[in-house]
Amino acid sequence: EIVLTQSPGTLSLSPGERATLSCRASQSIGSSYVAWYQQKVGQAPRLLIYGVSSRATGIPQRFSGSGSGTDFTLTISRLEPEDFAVYYCQYSERSPLFTFGQGTNLDI
Amino acid sequence: QVQLQESGPGLVKPSQTLSLTCTVSGASITSGNYYWSWLRQSAGKGLEWIGRMHITGTIDYNPSVRRRVTISVDTSKNQFSLNVRSVIAADTGVYYCARDDGRGWNVFEYWGQGTLVTVSS
Q1: Which residue of A has its CA nearest to B39?
Q2: Spatial distance between the Cα atoms of B29 and B75, rounded to a whole number of angstroms
Q3: Residues of A at the B interface (Cβ-Cβ below 8 Å)?
Q4: How far does B83 lie from chain A, in Å, by closest CA?
Q5: Could you tell me which residues are beta bridge partners of residue B118?
Q6: pLDDT tens digits, one per residue of B24-67
Q7: How do residues A21-66 score in pLDDT, each as one tens digit?
Q8: What does the DSSP 8-state code read for residue A56?
Q9: CA neighbor of B116 nearest in space, from B10, B34, B7
């Protein structure tokens, strides 16, 4: 079973700055089934990125995803006040099993 | 716009069965090539996928909970349900129902708001 480790646990930045969030897999992921979600307090997660780098419907261009092998990154180019939240990466293996990282808290 | 809403008791006693229902609006469970899932979130385990169903009858479970979990569907009510048997304190958390993207990317595009379930005597 693949384990996803996100870093840092907490990232403290200011509006206008660039955020880089990391998701590392315990072994090489030979497919494109990596996604990112944003979760605000009291809300369900919201899909941001699927297929490593494709933005979901309605997601602003300042969000981008990249990576391959074991290392994947979510980048927010210029932080807006509404971007401060917890971010999760997710991977789906060939057999129906969905794995989430433990989350990065993006703090103002 | 697809909307999902979880419902069920917020408090369950240890060893009993947790039963939740997800009511879907804005789409039919019987239409399209979609998987309908249950997930939960707890302080101890983070986000955890529990299982999913497809209207063709396919049902998949997370091996970690497979022996205690059942997912079923009521097409007449456009609902699907989750039963977790023999609950323990570690089953406490916020339970979400969700629908995938329908294009094979294995992501959760639509979510319910979540319902908190506490296992306690």
Answers
A1: A98
A2: 7
A3: 33, 35, 37, 43-47, 50-51, 56, 88, 90, 92, 96-103
A4: 19
A5: B11
A6: 999 999 998 999 999 999 988 899 999 999 999 999 999 999 99
A7: 999 999 998 667 899 999 999 999 999 999 999 999 999 999 999 9
A8: P
A9: B10
